[in-house]
């Protein structure tokens, strides 16, 4: 007999803000300012500013769509509303195919922070990353209400870390570090934007949690409004001090934030930031695992995935089967990363390319659905800009293109099989 358990409506706007900020802040802000400064020089500030502006119409659209369609399918649901179930399935798979890379990368960045100050080997770093992922799965298994409360505390720690880092680095800023503005020309500015997109992934996760808001029409836009303001201010501030202090010249990007704090407060402060940085990386992992599990649940409920993925825990009301399946996937990727000594940068680019493709599809679909002039304009602007940034993803665009072509071929075969069975010759 099919279970009648439903997702629990327990998320408030405060918890929604914490979950959204936690999904966006974290790993990206800890490493990408130094990586993009190395790529584009001081002009990477333009990349951060443009990506911040790009996020505004996108957040408007996500707020409107998730309020209008509070469904755990999130972006896949929006695409489905605009283009049908097959397009929804492709969008869901594109998001999920980014998951095995994005989550382990985020956890590894956090583990590298601890490993850099405690002298951990590669094995120790990967073990810590695995522990972070398993904790996130376990807490999400217990329910979204516990997740929301956890995120409020952890996000508060993240905001403290970043504010403390910016304040501590101000005396070390030299405006001469801003020249020459374009040491490598304009092309790296666009290339940096495609990488920075990794730091802005996360807004759409509120759509996957929309069914669980107490008052989605009011609380989702409020959560997104608070989140976009906090995120954009902190991102630009951290990018500015990274360039203004020239810290990206002296240290590996993975530990640049530790160096910034240690400039003024010594190695003990650097150790504290390393520990809190590890916790900060937990935040996006926690929210994304919550969102991805709801996406799997929604795809199963819509008939795109096997039915058992749509089952909810009788007590915790969570998609527990999806959560349990995530564990071995993450552990396999971490094992491969350890064995093959994978570079983190390509692993960041894969989910970036996938989500750029998803955002482009989602924004076009939203433009077809939304009736307000603000919604339609924001959707078309976001679709255009997402598509342009997607073209700067280089060879990594082949990953979402390949996934899409394989799914289109499978859908074509299924349709032919259905027609041949219904209308045999």
Keywords:
mainly alpha, 425 residues
Structural class: mainly alpha
Cα(first) to Cα(last) distance is 38 Å
The SSE string, one letter per element, is HHHHHHHHHHHHHHHH
Rounded mean pLDDT is 82
Describe this structure in words.
With 425 residues, the chain is mostly helical. 77% of the residues lie in helices and 0% in strands. It contains 16 helices and no strands. The longest helix is centred in the middle third of the chain and has 46 residues, at 256-301.
Summarize the structure.
With 425 residues, the protein is mostly helical. It has helices at 13-24, 27-40, 44-68, 75-83, 85-118, 122-141, 144-169, 187-200, 205-208, 216-244, 247-250, 256-301, 320-340, 344-369, 373-391, 398-422. It is 77% helix and 0% strand.
Please describe the topology of this protein.
Layout: H1 13-24, H2 27-40, H3 44-68, H4 75-83, H5 85-118, H6 122-141, H7 144-169, H8 187-200, H9 205-208, H10 216-244, H11 247-250, H12 256-301, H13 320-340, H14 344-369, H15 373-391, H16 398-422
Helix pairs in contact: 1-7, 1-10, 1-12, 2-5, 2-8, 2-10, 2-12, 3-8, 3-10, 3-15, 4-5, 4-14, 5-6, 5-12, 5-13, 5-14, 5-16, 6-12, 6-13, 7-10, 7-12, 8-14, 12-13, 14-15
